[in-house]
C-alpha cells in the first residue's frame, strides 16, 4: 500500500521539471516518470535509466556481465559511422561482456538489439514482429571495427549468427503504446538469462513497478 501511494504521488500533479531520481549521470523528472503512466510512450530518459539499473544489478554474483548502450548510440552510429562512437566504449571491453543491450528508437517505435558475446549471436527483438536484419548487420560491422580498433584483432564474422526474433518467439504488444515497456522487460529477462514469459496483460503492472524502481534506483 505504501508503494502504491508513492507510485501514485510520482504520477500525480506536481512540477514537471522536478527531479524524482538521479543516478548514473542521468536525471529523471516528474515529466519523464509520467511517460510510464497508462498508455504513454516511454522516453529516452526512462529507458536509459532502466538499462542502467539492469547493468547495476548485473554486478551482483550470478548475473551475466552486462553492458547497455544509451538510446543515443544507434542513431549516432548510423549518422556518423564507427568514428562517431569509437569513444563510447572508453574503459569498457565489449568482448569481455556476456551480453550487450542496444535499445533502438525507430521514430515512433522502440525495439531492442541483443549481442550475446558468449554465443556469438546478434538478435533483434521487436514487439510488433518487424524484421531488423539490417540493424543486426550494422551492429556486427560495428563489432568488427571495435575489435580491430581496440584489440587489433579481426572478428571472425562467419562464426556469428544474426536473427530477427519471429512474432511467435517473443511476446507481442496488442496496442500502439507499450513498445518501450516491452523493450525494458525483454532486457530484464535476457539480462538474467531467463526465458521471456510475460504478456501484454502484465504491462499496467510493469509500468507501475518501473516507477517505483526508478525512484528507488533499485530493481524489485
Features:
220 residues; Papain-like_cys_pep_sf; 40% helix; Peptidase_C48_C; alpha/beta; two-stranded antiparallel sheet; Adenoviral Proteinase, Chain; deSUMOylase activity; thiol protease; SENP2 protease; 7 helices
Would you give an account of this structure?
InterPro entries: Papain-like_cys_pep_sf, Peptidase_C48_C. It is a single chain. This protein has 220 residues and is of the alpha/beta class. It has one domain: Adenoviral Proteinase, Chain, CATH 3.40.395.10. The chain has helices at residues 2-11, 30-33, 44-58, 73-85, 133-151, 179-190, 203-216; strands at 19-23, 26-29, 66-68, 99-105, 110-116, 121-125, 161-164. The strands form 2 sheets. Strands 3-4-5-6-7 form a 5-stranded mixed beta sheet, with helices on both faces. α1 packs across α7 and α3 (44-58) runs parallel beside α6 (179-190). It is globular and about 55 Å long.
Amino acid at each position: 500500500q505504501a508503494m502504491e501511494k508513492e507510485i501514485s504521488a510520482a504520477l500525480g500533479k506536481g512540477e514537471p521539471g522536478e527531479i524524482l531520481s538521479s543516478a548514473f549521470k542521468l536525471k529523471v523528472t516528474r515529466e519523464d516518470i509520467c511517460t510510464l503512466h497508462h498508455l504513454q510512450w516511454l522516453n529516452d530518459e526512462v529507458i536509459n535509466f532502466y538499462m542502467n539499473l539492469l547493468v547495476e544489478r548485473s554486478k551482483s554474483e550470478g548475473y551475466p556481465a552486462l553492458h547497455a548502450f544509451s538510446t543515443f548510440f544507434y542513431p549516432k552510429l548510423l549518422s556518423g559511422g564507427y568514428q562517431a562512437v569509437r569513444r563510447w566504449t572508453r574503459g569498457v571491453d565489449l568482448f569481455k561482456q556476456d551480453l550487450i543491450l542496444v535499445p533502438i528508437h525507430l521514430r515512433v517505435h522502440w525495439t531492442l538489439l541483443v549481442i550475446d558475446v558468449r554465443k556469438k549471436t546478434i538478435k533483434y527483438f521487436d514487439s510488433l514482429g518487424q524484421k531488423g536484419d539490417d540493424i543486426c548487420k550494422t551492429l556486427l560491422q560495428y563489432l568488427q571495427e571495435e575489435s580491430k580498433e581496440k584489440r587489433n584483432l579481426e572478428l571472425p564474422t562467419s562464426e556469428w549468427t544474426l536473427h530477427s526474433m519471429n512474432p511467435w518467439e517473443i511476446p507481442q504488444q496488442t496496442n500502439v503504446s507499450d513498445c518501450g515497456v516491452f523493450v525494458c522487460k525483454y532486457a530484464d529477462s535476457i539480462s538474467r538469462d531467463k526465458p521471456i514469459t510475460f504478456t501484454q496483460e502484465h504491462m499496467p503492472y510493469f509500468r507501475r513497478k518501473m516507477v517505483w524502481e526508478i525512484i528507488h534506483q533499485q530493481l524489485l
